[in-house]
Every structure is written in C-alpha cells, then in structure tokens.
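Our consortium's second objective concerns turning raw sequence data into structural hypotheses that experimental partners can test. To show how far this objective has progressed, the report includes one record in full. It was chosen at random from the queue rather than selected for favorable results. The single chain below, 206 residues long, was entered without modification.
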Amino acid sequence: MLDIDDPKQNSDREPTLTSTPLNSTLSLQPHSQLAIISKHIEVLLHASETPLTAHMLKKHLSLSTQELQLALAILRERLSNGVLDLSETVSGYRLQISDSYSALVQCVFPQRQERLSQALLETLSVIAYKQPVTRSDIEQVRGVTLSSNILRQLFDKGWIMENGYKDTLGRPALLYTTAQFLDAFGLNRLDELPPMPDMTAIGAAS
C-alpha cells in the first residue's frame, strides 16, 4: 500500500482506488490528486458499456459534486489533445470519437453508417418536436399515412414510447421520445434540439 508520508516511496506511482482515501489526499495535493481522479473516471468510462451518471461516479470514487466537476474539467482538457470527447447525455457521461473523425470512420467502416429512411426521419422529427403526439397527428403533419413498420422500427430502437392516451374518440396512444433517443443523438435535453427542419430538408439529407 502506498504511504504518502514515506519519502522512500515512488511519488510518481498512482494510488489505486483502494490504496488511499481520495477525500483525505485532496486536501494535501489538490491538483495532482484531481488529475489522478480524472484518470480513474476515464478508466471507468472506457470499461463501462453504458454511460455513467454523476451519482455513480461520485459514489464509487467518493467524490463531492465540486470534486467531480473539477476532475471532469481536467479530463476534458486532457482529451482535447486526443481523438476522444467526453460527452454528457441524459443517461450520463461517456467517451466517444470526436466528430472531426466521423468521415474517416464512415469511409473505412461504411457498414457502421446506418441510413435512416426519409419516412422514419420525418416521423421521428414530428414526435421529437411536437410530443406528445398521436399517430393521427403525425399523419396530419406529414400528409401521408403512417406505416406501422416505421413505428415498429422506432420502438425497436428504443427511441419512442407510449405514455398515456389522448382524451378523444378512440383514445389513441400518446407518443414521446425516450432517453435512448437523446443518447443516440448526443443530447442531454430536448431543448438542445436544433430548430425544427422542414420535411423537404430531411428528405434531402437522407
């Protein structure tokens, strides 16, 4: 175990999560200890298959909210010189390849680029910007009959959900976007959506 009071120990060695209480060493070496914590956060984000919430990081690393934010700032600064970005979505923090390299990835691995149909993008846009909406509302905006297959694809991706019913004839289900939708598009909140595009622009983009 690393003894911070022993000058014979190697000062360059990073303590493990269990070797020294993080909160106790923060007061002794605030900047260097926060830098170490930022590396611990990076390790956990690499190891996790899903985003990690601030609550999870604070719990497992015994951090206060302020300490977490400072460590995340250090991590962002260190990542700025590499190819990964620290992204925060509604589900938590995750590491992802910087957008500046997306063209390279798509060129070398074109199979990873999923092409969404115009009908699916239009339907998803109506739900995202006008939620809650019913199937009839979507058809009214788009001007065409909505295919059940389109809704099935959105449900299968986990991007939309039913929550409640509209108090009208037939009590149609109300559709909303989900946290998975925000994660998929790198959003933390719905108000981060750009201005609603028109349907012709969506069609040209697809």
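The partners drew two points from this record. The longest strand covers residues 84-89. The mean pLDDT is 81. Both points have been shared with the crystallography group to help prioritize constructs.
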